[in-house]
Amino acid sequence: MLTVIVAFGIPLALSFERRVVAEAQGRSLAQAQAIASAVGDPREDEDEIPRVIADAARVIGGRVTVVDAAGAVVADSSGTPPGDAATEVLRALGSRAPVSEVRRGEGPEVVGTSVPIVEEGEVVGAVGIEVPLDRVRAGLPRTYLALGVVGSAALLAGLAIAFALAGSFARPLRRLAASAARLGRGDLGVRTGEVRAPREIREVATSFDEMAERLQATVRAQRRFAGNASHQLRTPLTALKLRIEAALAGAPEDLRPELEAADHEVDRLTAIVERLLVLSRRVERTGPWESSLGDLAAAAVDRWRARLAQARRPINATGDDARAAANPADVEQILDNLIENALVHGGGAVTIETRAAGARAMLAVEDRGRGIRDEEAARVLERFYRGSEAPAGGSGLGLAIVRDLAERWEGEVRVGPGPGGGARVEIELPAPPPTRAR
After folding, report:
1. pLDDT band at 277, cuts 50/70/90?
2. Pairwise CA distance, residues 291 & 294, whole Å
């Protein structure tokens, strides 16, 4: 809009200036003709001519000169001694036609207009008028100011209209982007609903809602299948374990290793089923939850100290008592999975760290083992993925459960090397909102 206004405004201003000069020339021509009629033959009544041109000069605000047929100056309203006549005066005298032009020289610019004085078909002299261009252009600044005001008003009006139009596009797009972000964080029930926007954006919003609906139906079906399958497997697994334990009670020595191995496999399969149940469980967020990460870390140390002591590996908790907006049961399960992962896949001491970081709360578990390869760090959070150096017998679901439980509370999981070697898994959870004092 600014380009258009400038592109039209500058030519318009120049055109207006040319028009003002042209009107001044036309006015000067009419005035010169009137003066020529009043002066008559310069050879007659020369004493009256200075008075006539002096009055005319005051009216037009310029200079009036009268010359005779030979081109000699008869009278000059400026009062200077007679000298040479202006060029356009001589041209009017010779061509017997009016002449008007803008004269630019060493002095100020003037509009010079001359007409011949004709008596009985004979040119007996000429009248010349000089009007300074500064006087002609005196009203142009006000005109330019008016053009500027009109252009600025048009620009502001255009910006207001453009802002309104842009808002009609941006608001539904921001709404769509917010819905997509919520869907990406796992809120499968988000929908954009009816959007008041141009047809193209409405079509995108409708397609988004249809996609979210199909995605939610697919995830529900998967969770339902995993939950049903897990529930159906728990009963036969429990019965199988009881039969193996009964067989172990009276088994001969040569069969005991095989039965103990079978019992171990049943335990491992039962653990996989339990983890599948966790992954398939519907997210329920009823009311505001708050967890003390420091207390939960201390309780986890007490739960796991004896088992880690059997492997001759110490466990401790450090940091402050950060608080997170999450269900304590979910945080406990996160800690248990991380500690078990460090016990099975790591080495050395296991450290639990808790820390408050503004509007977030951080929970980390690290060990001093061989760590995780950089190319595998991004994949260890996937379901059923097991690293190339992972020991046999794992299910590949521990860290996947950690990720799902953290994302349930809008948390983030980061996997990387620890500061002292080994692996470090950080969980970042939102802190509870501050309580308002009454």
Report:
1. low
2. 9
Tokens matching residue 307: 């088992």
Report the pLDDT value the prediction gives residue 3, as an integer from 0 to 100: 84
pTM flag (> 0.85): no
| CA quadruple 72, 76, 80, 85: dihedral, nearest 10 | -40
Rounded to whole angstroms, the Cα distance separating 22 from 102 reads: 10
Most distant CA pair in the chain: distance in Å?
A: 159
Candidates 234, 241, 274; CA nearest to 260 is 241
Helix (H) or strand (E) holding 112: strand 110-119
Residue 186, C-beta contacts closer than 8 angstroms, at least 6 positions apart: 283, 407, 408
3-state secondary structure of 14: helix
Report H helices in 250-283. Answer: 256-280
Instruction: List, for residues 321-361, the tens digit of each pLDDT value.
Output: 889 998 888 888 889 889 988 888 888 899 999 999 888 99
Q: Which of 420, 305, 301 is nearest to 368 (CA)?
A: 420
Q: How far apart are CA 257 and CA 267, in angstroms?
A: 15
- Spatial neighbors of 184 by CB under 8 A, at least 6 apart, are none
Element housing 16 (H / E): helix 2-39
Report the DSSP pairing between strands 412-417 and 360-366.
unpaired
Helix 49-60 vs helix 2-39: crossing angle, to nearest 10: 160
pLDDT in tens, 183-228: 877 777 888 888 777 788 888 888 888 998 888 888 788 777 766 7
Residue whose pair of structure tokens reads 């100011």 in the numeric block: 145
- HSE-up of residue 70 (Cα within 13 Å, Cβ side): 5
Pair of tokens at residue 247: 């067989």
Predicted pLDDT at 30: 87
pLDDT tens digits, one per residue of 137-175: 777 788 788 888 888 888 889 888 888 888 777 888 888
List, as one string, the DSSP characters of 21-33.
HHHHHHHHHHHHH
Place of tokens 């053009």: 147
Residue-by-residue DSSP string for 69-111: TTS-EEEETT-PPP-PPPHHHHHHHHHSS-EEEEE-SSS--EE
| Contact between 168 and 198 (Cβ < 8 Å) | yes
**Coil, strand or helix at 122:** strand
The torsion of the CA quartet 391, 396, 401, 403, rounded to 10 degrees, works out to: 90
